[in-house]
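Data availability (excerpt). All sequences and predicted token strings are deposited with the supplementary files. A representative entry, Type 4 fimbrial biogenesis protein PilX N-terminal domain-containing protein, is shown inline so that the format can be inspected without opening the archive.
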Amino acid sequence: MKLKCRNLIRKTEGQIVLILVLITIVGLTVGLSLISRTVTDVRISSQIEQSNRAFSAAEAGVEIALKSAVVNGPTVTFNLSQVAVTYKVSTVGDSNVYTFPNAQTGKTQVLWLADHDSDGNIVESSTYPVGSPLDVCWGSTVNNNAAVVMSLLYKTIDNNYKIAKSAYDPDPAAPGHDIYNFLTLLPEDMIGGYCNGNYRFKKTINDVLQFWEGLTLTPDTKLISLWLQPVDQDTSFAINTRTGTNLYKQGIQINSQGLTSTGILRRIKVIKSFQLIPQVFNYTLFSE
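Structure token line:
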């Protein structure tokens, strides 16, 4: 009887030890999981904090670049709260092909046909020549059939500012397009592959004979700016000078980055165009 009791006690003790081992393993597993989760959370929090510092430093580089009023300058590097900041200011648009950001329907993109000085003021003595053709390209996606309204701001020899308008539609049969007085594009302007092969439609303006249908300008006319407004669909625009002549600069581009000591890198690109003429002038100036 005593032997049976001893065996029972031993079996019970063995089961208790096994249960304790299992509990210990489970507890250790849970503990290690919590520790791993905590370490991961700390690492993520640190990365977020480092990322925010890098981004804030890159923003500081942009602000300094804007305050410096530099139009085109060398790369500048400085340290801000143990973050290495690098920024560079360069001009945009001074090439023979210029692509605008995507334009929303009803929103106007402005192409400057006059130069600007270092303070951003228009230099009317330096303007794009009359009679040097420009291709205006749009329709940047396969199914894009946007129409476009073009407005030209120019200055006559007797110092009067005028605005001329024209509008073009690649799909005049589209619903709702019949309410506009659009001109239809020529078949050769709807083949596609224009302005470096990225656009479906184009309209050549500022040709030798006339700027566009119904508008003839004298060689001494000062071309100031061309306003492009998509209708019915969003589209981006591009300009090709055809002759290879560079356009005037359209603004500045600031590329800034912040790099932390842990290797976290954040970049910011800002494009600042020259101060635009209020669109109210599109309606108040003499139009033809």
